[in-house]
């Protein structure tokens, strides 16, 4: 069994243990820090931290092998856990150059959308929509494969939506299925206002969660915000997905009806509560949207007295079956290649950089835990859309015949500049003094705090779902997924 806690040791312990032939820091009696953050903010140099992660990963792999007897599964889960620890270590120390990989992969299967909702990059208000830098293209499976091969073994979740309508990509189910082969929890969000003729394939893909954006129960009310949407078609598709789940005997995708409340539709929330079980959705989520009055002054967001989550048919969240664990063998080559490269080798591949930049400086969670891929193959740091003015958020671009490695994507010039802007403002200003404005990341001046649908609580649940045999202790999982 693994120890109950995971701690990156203090600097004195690091210096003592680093040169030992057998580094067994993971098996030593833990010094019980007050919180995971205390252990991870100890300022251990990157070289030592990388060496300890190698040992942690090997110990985890051995314990998982003893329980499951599946080398590929043991490799990929041990790798994900070690990478999570590495990401926390870098975040705690505010490093600009990382040997960790993103924990969350956000992907837009399609940059296009058939609706024209106010406040969106696809708004029918051309004055506002024209500000966004958002090419309406589809993500190719080859580009997505290049993305997954590099990053899939390390991550926990694939968030398969952003600003486009994902189901416009005819190979959406294939994108989900490939993601599941890396044991990623998968979630998407759709307006469902389009012909859906592959509901059985969507269910069979293994998609875990699908949010359905339906803001009304009559066409007149629904259409005021979901412009160009067809509510009858939407409800028909919801029923078709629920029927496909029943045919397959599947509990997934877990269907969540999201009802955003405005002045014009808040009187229909009770209707949605009655209608939800009839349609076959698992739950209804009534929520307050962001204001879109800057785009359409006639649409006023409000908070409904009914705001909250209403569960009609719950789910235990056990998404990682033995069959799914076995499916990881289809990606055994990519998983083994990632597992076989040591964290020390990853550290050594980086150019010389800072060790402990500014542990207490404000920073952005997204820059350490997330990478976003849009339908055009562009890599962005978060969920925000770049625009043609100040929001320079395209860090680099991925191609189907990509030759760069994962850490080249993680540590692109824009990404390292963005992290440095928080941790070392003076160094950032010196570095960018000769960089044109369009070559500087928006992150340096960003005052927004975009929310993520996936966080440490979700990761904790995913670890438990994958480790059905409970090899990993509650204390260890808590250390790895504790809040910042």
Structural account:
- By secondary structure, this protein is an alpha/beta fold.
- The protein has a domain at 104-311: Aldolase class I (TIM Barrel, Alpha-Beta Barrel).
- The chain contains 20 helices and ten strands.
- The chain has helices at residues 11-18, 36-40, 46-68, 71-93, 126-129, 141-151, 172-180, 199-204, 219-225, 231-248, 269-279, 322-327, 332-340, 343-349, 366-369, 406-410, 413-423, 425-432, 456-466, 474-481; strands at residues 104-107, 157-159, 185-190, 209-213, 254-260, 283-287, 308-311, 370-373, 378-380, 396-397.
- The protein has a ten-stranded mixed beta sheet.
- Helix 3 packs antiparallel against helix 4 (71-93), helix 3 runs antiparallel to helix 14 (343-349) and helix 4 (71-93) packs across helix 13.
- It is globular and about 60 Å long.
- The two termini are 27 Å apart.
- Residues 1-41 have low confidence and may be disordered.
Reported CATH architecture of the domain at 104-311: Alpha-Beta Barrel
Distance between the termini: 27 Å
**What fold name stands as the CATH topology of the domain at 104-311?**
TIM Barrel
Largest beta-sheet details: 10 strands, mixed
In what order do the strands lie side by side in the largest sheet? 7-6-5-4-3-2-1-8-9-10
User: Based on DSSP secondary structure assignment, what is the total number of beta strands?
Assistant: 10
The low-pLDDT segments are 1-41
Shape category: globular
Measured by DSSP, the beta-strand proportion falls in 5-15%
Class per helix and strand makeup? alpha/beta
Mean pLDDT: 89
CATH class of the domain at 104-311: Alpha Beta
How many DSSP H or I helices? 20
Radius of gyration from the alpha-carbon trace, in angstroms:
23 Å
* Proportion of residues in helical segments: 40-55%
């Amino acid at each position: 069994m693994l120890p109950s806690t995971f701690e990156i040791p203090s600097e004195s312990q690091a210096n003592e243990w680093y040169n030992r032939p057998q580094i067994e820091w993971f098996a030593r009696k833990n010094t019980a820090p007050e919180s995971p953050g205390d252990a991870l903010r100890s300022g251990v140099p990157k070289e030592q931290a990388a060496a300890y992660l190698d040992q942690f990963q090997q110990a985890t792999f051995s314990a998982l092998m003893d329980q499951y007897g599946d080398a590929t599964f043991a490799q990929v889960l041990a790798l994900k856990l070690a990478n999570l620890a590495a990401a926390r270590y870098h975040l705690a120390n505010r490093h600009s150059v990382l040997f960790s990989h993103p924990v969350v992969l956000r992907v837009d299967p399609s940059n296009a959308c058939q609706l024209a909702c106010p406040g969106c990059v696809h708004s029918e208000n051309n004055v506002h929509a024209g500000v966004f830098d958002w090419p309406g293209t589809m993500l190719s499976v080859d580009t997505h494969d290049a993305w997954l091969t590099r990053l899939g073994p390390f991550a926990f979740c694939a968030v398969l939506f952003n600003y486009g309508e994902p189901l416009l990509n005819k190979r959406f189910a294939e994108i989900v299925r490939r993601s599941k082969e890396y044991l990623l929890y998968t979630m998407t969000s759709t307006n469902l206002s389009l012909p859906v003729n592959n509901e059985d394939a969507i269910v069979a893909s293994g998609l875990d969660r699908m949010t359905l954006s339906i803001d009304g129960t009559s066409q007149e009310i629904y259409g005021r915000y979901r412009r160009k949407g067809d509510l009858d078609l939407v409800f028909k598709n919801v029923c078709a997905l629920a029927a496909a789940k029943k045919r397959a005997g599947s509990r997934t995708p877990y269907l969540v009806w999201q009802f955003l409340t405005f002045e014009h539709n808040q009187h229909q929330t009770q209707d949605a509560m009655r209608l939800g079980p009839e349609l076959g959705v698992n739950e209804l989520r009534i929520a307050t949207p962001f204001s879109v009055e800057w785009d359409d002054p006639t649409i006023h967001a409000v908070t409904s007295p009914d705001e909250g989550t209403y569960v009609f048919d719950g789910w235990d969240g056990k998404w990682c079956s033995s069959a799914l664990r076995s499916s990881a063998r289809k990606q055994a080559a990519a998983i083994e290649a990632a597992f076989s490269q040591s964290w020390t080798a990853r550290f050594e591949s980086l150019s010389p950089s800072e060790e402990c930049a500014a542990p207490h400086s404000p920073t952005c969670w997204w820059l350490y835990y997330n990478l976003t891929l849009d339908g055009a193959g562009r890599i962005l740091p978060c969920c925000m859309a770049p625009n043609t003015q100040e929001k320079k958020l395209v860090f680099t671009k991925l191609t189907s015949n990509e030759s760069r490695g994962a850490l080249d994507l993680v540590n692109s010039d824009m990404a390292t500049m963005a992290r440095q802007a928080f941790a070392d403002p003076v160094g950032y200003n010196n570095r960018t003094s000769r960089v044109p404005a369009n070559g500087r990341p928006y992150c340096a001046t960003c005052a927004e705090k975009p929310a993520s649908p996936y966080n440490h609580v979700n990761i904790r649940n995913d670890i438990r779902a994958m480790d059905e045999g409970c090899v990993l202790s509650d204390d260890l999982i808590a250390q790895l997924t504790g809040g910042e």
